[in-house]
Amino acid sequence: MNKKLKAVIIGPGNIGTDMLMKMQRSEWIEPVWMVGIDPESEGLKRAAEMGIKTCSTGVDGVLEHIIADDVRVAFDATSAYVHAENSRKLNELGVIMVDLTPAAVGPFCVPPVNLTDHARNLEMNVNMVTCGGQATIPMIAAVSRVQPVAYGEIVATVSSRSVGPGTRQNIDEFTRTTAGAVEKVGGAKEGKAIIIINPAEPPLMMRDTIHCLTEGEPDQTAITESIHAMVKEVQKYVPGYTLINGPIFDGNKVSCYMQVEGLGDFLPKYAGNLDIMTAAALRTAEMFAEEAADGTITLPARG
Amino acid sequence: MNLNGKKVTLHDMSLRDGMHAKRHQISLDEMVSISTAMDEAGMPLIEVTHGDGLGGRSLNYGFPAHSDEEYLRAVVPKMKNARISALLLPGIGTVDHLKMAKDCGVSTIRVATHCTEADVSEQHIGMAAKMEMDTVGFLMMAHMVSPEKILEQAKLMVSYGANCIYATDSAGYMLPDDVTAHIGLLRTELPSNVEIGFHGHHNLGMGIANSLAAIEAGASRIDGSVAGLGAGAGNTPLEVFCAVLERMGVETGVDLYKIMDVAEDLVVPMMDQPIRVDRNALTLGYAGVYSSFLLFAERAEKKYGISARDILVELGRRGTVGGQEDMIEDLALTMAKEKGLI
User: Fold this and answer.
1) Following CA atoms A261, A267, A273, A276 in sequence, which dihedral angle do they give, to the nearest 10 degrees?
2) Looking at CB atoms within 10 Å, which of A293, B132, B303, B320 has the fewest?
3) Region at B132 (left for phi over 0; alpha for psi -120 to 50; beta for the rest)
4) How far, in Å, CA of A225 to CA of A247, rounded?
5) Cβ-nearest to A257 among B91, B122, B330
6) Which residue of B has its CA nearest to A250?
7) From CA B49, how far away is CA A17, in angstroms rounded?
8) Among B299, B271, B294, which residue's Cα sits nearest to residue B281?
């Protein structure tokens, strides 16, 4: 039996296309459908050229094929406004939803921190937080697993070209959602998130700064070791995730300076912020597939 | 230059931009005594928040002595005539902060973005306008782009609801002709009911000259700070500017002697260091770097042995923008590694 889980991607934009390219290399996920709402869209044409089925009538148009094609996982790269409905319809058919929108219907998922828990609980909807969250929360968690973090702060600097209109129209959603996940997933008692958009040409690589205030004096050796181990975990799915400087210790403050270079599949390499989202989303689905294959979890039954 | 008979609204920055120079440590008593004295002197608009605006409280920019809300609740009720403004940088502060400021009695909201990124301000400008606040779009680092680009971005902010647009010389890099070109195009092309403003830094000693050029080109709001207390070499020193404007026959409504006294008796004694065009502040202006980077670069110099001037020049070369304070320690570490210092 084929161990790969079959997948549908909703939203044939830059993110959806990049994810499709990554998925075609995956040992665990097989892309089957690309869903859009405009039959003339470049993204759907690209997907068809790449050999997968396309549907231009939204999620409703693909529902009748879900069981027949044994689709088990969906990636939603549309918008928070339509995500809840997409998720409800697909969850009813037993499809696990990986949410790349800011909707946050399901729990936040940052793969090296809490993906195993979500997979074992068979969460039917997981949310990928934000690009800044994916790039920084592993480092907050790397500190908080050593000792309590009273305050965690992240600064994500991204190139202007890599920030789409959706994020721009609701930039508060980025700061709020990321700060919330710094607390909920990262384990900081108080979280703060800042995003800076830089228009320099050529575009700058995504950069992230992570500061933690530990409770009590930081255990420098243990924290340094934990951070290096966590960087390696993230590098498994984002090879260009690099600790440029740090950890730097200053009193109770622990600081790390990161750079995130993308794989350059469909999105340019500088857009590490987008790459880390697609890579984390794929990694999430792969973990569900691995756990299903070794019998740790049982996917929803189908006749 | 003939500005005789023109009217301008002066807007004091010493309690907001000045927070940078004070590492955000101005006390509530100092805020109240200085703002009260400025009100008494006839200053029409006074800005009060963390140096990086509402929500700026952070390790990245510095924890302030008090929260924005504490400062605003202390100052606003004490004002007889002056109105209080608050700065908000989308990506740092949110509409929640904006609503808090409105609730504290702030009348003017200034929503600041980098000069090419105005479209991140839609929800904040829209909300402030909807709450019928005096809503200002504040385009930072204006020296980095052409007047045409500033106009394009200004039009976005106006479409979201801004009733005033600023060209902001955050790096103190602009020369009077640059100001004339930027402000002049905004004044010619934007609707006449949209006010134009200019915010300068004195890093090349051009604060006064640039502000005069702005008025001549059609700006009706000018930022400065009493005794120049602001980031870098400070803002246009308002008591000096008042004296110049009085001689030129420009109406400001500010009492010259009283504002001179605020500067000399209250603000200068509060300074942690002289606010002047020293070597590093000059480098900001020369290299086109965001003024609040100054003290961060000086701290990095002390910690890692890399000259603040070298750090600032490299930050300029890399096209850093406002808010990228975290780049300073990161870059200093990288430079120190390259030099074998660490």
Assistant:
1) -80
2) B132
3) left
4) 10
5) B330
6) B303
7) 44
8) B294
Residue A77: Cβ within 10 Å count = 25
Q: What is the pLDDT of residue A303?
A: 64
Q: Are strands A125-127 and B195-199 parallel, antiparallel or unpaired?
A: unpaired
Task: Say how far apart CA B227 and CA B56 lie, in whole Å.
Answer: 24
Residue A135, C-beta contacts closer than 8 angstroms, at least 6 positions apart: A154, A156, A206, A208, A241, A258, A260, A272, A273, A276
Average pLDDT over residues A71-97: 95
What's the CA dihedral at A137, A143, A149, A153 to 10 degrees? -40
Q: Strand B45-47 to strand B9-12: parallel, antiparallel, or no bridges (unpaired)?
A: parallel
User: Is the bond into A138 cis (omega within 30 degrees of 0)?
Assistant: no
In SS3 terms, B28-57 reads as HHHHHHHHHHHHHHCCCEEECCCCCCCCCC
Backbone torsions φ then ψ of B113, nearest 5 degrees: -135, 165
Q: Which of A196, A211, A245, A254 to mutate to test the interface with B (most CBs of B within 10 A)?
A: A196
Distance CA A190, CA A300 (A): 37
Could you tell me the pTM of the whole model? 0.96
End-to-end CA gap in chain A: 17
Contact A218, A145 (CB under 8 A): no
Of residues B227, B293, B218, B220, the one with CA closest to residue B263: B227
What does the block give as tokens for B143? 């020296």
Nearest to A196 among B95, B323, B334 (CB): B323
Q: How far apart are CA B141 and CA B113, in angstroms?
A: 9
pLDDT digits (tens, 9 = 90+) for B251-288: 999 999 999 999 999 999 999 999 999 999 999 999 99
Please state, for a pLDDT cut of 90, what percent of chain B lies above it. 100
> Which residues in B19-43 are b (16+ Cβ under 10 Å) and which e?
bbbbbbebeeebbbbbbbbbbbbbb
Q: Is B174 on the interface with A (CB under 8 A)?
A: no
* Residues of B whose CB is below 8 A from A257: 326, 329-330, 333
The single-letter code of the amino acid at B6 is K
Burial class (CB in 10 A: 0-12, 13-18, 19+), B309: middle
Rounded to whole angstroms, how far apart are CA atoms A125 and A57?
A: 23
- Residue B89 to residue B322: CA distance in whole angstroms: 10
Average pLDDT of B103-121? 98
User: Using alpha carbons only, what angle is made at residue A15 by residues A292 and B318, rounded to the nearest 5 degrees?
Assistant: 125
Per residue in A239-289, pLDDT tens?
999 999 999 999 999 999 999 999 999 999 999 999 999 999 999 999 999
